[in-house]
Design a protein that fits this description.
524 residues, three-stranded antiparallel sheet, 18 strands, globular
């Protein structure tokens, strides 16, 4: 008998590739899919039924409804939980985002726990949980602090969902934090919202293609079924990245994308348009670990854009038009979108501006000309314009040497089986808090113990959730309101990365009011 795979998020960019490639496995008898009953999904249903016949079982429903999730996971061997409301939609529909990303995950987890024979859970989380990174700590790894950027509803809801998985009663789970995905319609999909201007020009990004992500999921199921994946793979978090050939910056991302229509970042955009902080993404010093398990690195960033140019030859027609005309017709109108930083600046949305630039003054002071803007990938220090060896910075063998390796607050050279009370105390103190439990079984990283943050909030969480996955207090780091300026003053774990892009005398707090209006205040 073959296996049954249950999927959420099958109509998304990663989901479509995952469905296609998982169904290439002879060991898979059936894939059960939960879809919302909307036009695009009904079209997908007809297409998939034609392609795959009875091997696909479509269920129309809502992930925010528990009974629908229960129907989905019943009788399955694996649950591939990919569903998420992502930006830009997540920036405009907070309630729907929460219902899918947080409540939906809770429902999936609870439904699995109710099964007499639990399926294995593969939960897709996101790089956005880490929050902003820049050239001072461009590399990151599992266990680094989770500091979702202010006003980022997507990251906020995903971190809550992930945490629910980590400390749940699911017997066999894995959390995979997905980086930015390169997909077929990416260029056109970003031409209707101001989201592209959230991407900092100098942000380090490790991309992965949708095809490689689908291959990763295929290999996960295949290797676990045939017994070559290994029991040690499970009950852990991993970063999904595309490897060395996919590590670039925001500037290069725009530059290579615009190249296929005859432009460039400098021809089409202005240094003043994009945020300088409050984004997410980084280069993963540990993405190779997941690839060692699942062998999915196939496409480079350049391979992806070559494929787009080859399959969308009409893009080349744009080369006949002056770059200024393309910018004026296609990009500049997006600056008036209410999700664009220049809109925030023009309309006095000071909280959004402060989060994205530091202050209104700093936003207005950005250079108008590219020759006056310090571009990291061109070898300039973003802060002062001094020379910086960009290629050397990207050498993953020199992460520790260059001081990019963040401190997690305990002796990581110890084997997990040797971690005990003293290690918990050290980790808690480094986070400005305390380890409250009087004892724990040495090496038991999955039984919940009690902690206390510097604000006096007591909470239960497994040692793995805190030490290995980077979570901390679920009260003062909900993460809304975003109060990291205050929290970082007493939390060295967060401070080591927070102050890379924030001044130590900043005292802002950010939140949304009941009407979803962005609010902020300055602590005295």
């Amino acid at each position: 008998m073959g296996i049954t795979v249950a999927m959420t998020g099958a109509s998304g960019n990663m989901g479509v590739e995952t469905l296609k490639q998982v169904l290439e496995l002879d060991c898979v008898d059936k894939v059960k899919i939960l879809l919302v009953n909307e036009k695009r999904e009904r079209k997908d249903n007809r297409k998939w039924k034609k392609l795959y016949g009875d091997r696909v079982e479509i269920m129309f429903g809502d992930i925010a409804v528990y009974d629908d999730c229960k129907r989905l996971v019943e009788g399955s061997d694996y649950v591939l939980h990919l569903a998420a409301v992502i930006p830009p939609k997540a920036d405009h529909f907070a309630e729907e985002t929460d219902e899918c990303n947080r409540i939906g995950t809770i429902n999936v987890v609870n439904a699995i726990c109710e099964m007499k024979r639990q399926p294995k859970l593969v939960h897709i989380s996101t790089v956005a949980t880490y929050g902003n990174r820049n050239y001072k700590h461009p590399w990151g790894r599992i266990g680094d602090p989770l500091l979702p950027s202010a006003y980022d509803e997507y990251a906020t809801t995903k971190i809550k969902g992930e945490r629910y998985v980590l400390d749940s009663d699911v017997k066999c789970w894995v959390v995979l934090r997905q980086t930015g995905i390169l997909y077929g319609n990416m260029l056109m999909a970003n031409m209707s919202d101001g989201l592209m201007f959230h991407t900092c020009y100098n942000v380090p990004i490790e991309w992965v293609t949708a095809k490689d992500s689908g291959l990763m999921m295929k290999h996960l199921v295949e290797r676990d079924v045939n017994g070559t994946l290994g029991k040690e793979f499970w009950l852990r978090c991993y970063n999904i990245g595309g490897g060395p050939t996919n590590r670039i910056t925001g500037f290069e991302t725009f530059d290579k994308g615009f190249k296929i229509i005859g432009g460039s970042t400098e021809k089409f955009m202005s240094p003043q348009w994009n945020a300088t902080r409050n984004f997410h993404c980084m280069w993963f010093e540990d993405s190779r670990e997941l690839n060692d398990y699942l062998d999915f690195w196939r496409q480079s960033f350049d391979d992806y854009w070559k494929e787009i140019a080859d399959t969308h030859k009409y893009f080349a027609l744009a080369k006949a038009f002056p770059p200024k005309l393309i910018s004026a017709l296609a990009l500049k109108p997006l600056l008036r979108n209410n999700n664009a930083p220049r809109y925030w600046l023009k309309h006095g949305m000071d909280g959004r501006v402060m989060a994205a630039f530091g202050s209104v003054k700093e936003a207005n002071a950005l250079p108008k000309k590219w020759e006056d803007f310090n571009v990291l990938c061109k070898g300039k220090n973003p802060d002062d314009g001094s020379a910086i060896d960009y290629d050397d910075m990207r050498d993953e063998q020199k992460v520790v040497e260059h001081g990019y390796h963040l401190d997690h607050g305990y002796d990581e050279s110890k084997d997990d089986s040797e971690l005990g009370v003293e290690d918990m105390k050290q980790a808690a103190a480094f986070r400005g808090g305390k380890f409250v439990s009087e004892s724990m079984t040495k090496g038991d990283l999955y039984t919940k113990v009690e902690w206390e943050c510097h604000d006096g909030h007591r909470f239960a969480a497994s040692p793995y959730t805190i030490l290995k996955a980077g979570h901390w207090c679920p009260v003062c780091l909900v993460p809304e309101p975003w109060d990291y300026d205050r929290v970082s003053k007493d939390n060295p774990f967060f401070a080591q990365v927070w102050y890379d892009s924030h001044k130590e005398d900043e005292n802002a707090e950010y939140w949304f009011d009941k009407d979803h209006t962005p609010m902020h205040r300055i602590h005295k």
